[in-house]
Design goal:
single chain; mainly alpha
């Protein structure tokens, strides 16, 4: 029993540390990063005006806030995840339209 005690304590500490972390949303985070890069690239290349880039940046910030709210209770439900992805789809379309509007 003495030999198992350190492993049990280590397991309890690791479990407690993991419980404090918010739920992971790696696909959402990767899409968020890709969309931000698209906005930055459009602003750099001149495909986006300053105003368009600012509005798209604000939309990305709203998406991040929505993700933070979904994670706030410690669980991102299937419905919340679907809503986040739907909002990202909409934002992605906005980025495409603004980058290709011949301005």
């Amino acid at each position: 029993m003495k030999q198992l005690l350190p492993f049990l304590l280590l397991g309890l500490c690791a479990g407690a540390a993991l419980a404090d972390e918010p739920p992971a949303t790696p696909r959402f985070d990767q899409r968020q990063e890709n969309q931000q890069q698209r906005v930055d690239q459009g602003a750099t290349s001149g495909a986006l005006t300053e105003r368009e880039a600012a509005r798209l940046d604000a939309q990305q910030e709203h998406l991040q806030s929505a993700e933070d709210r979904a994670k706030s209770d410690g669980v991102v439900t299937r419905k919340e995840r679907a809503a986040l992805h739907h909002r990202q789809d909409h934002a992605s379309g906005n980025i495409y339209r603004k980058k290709h509007n011949r301005r």
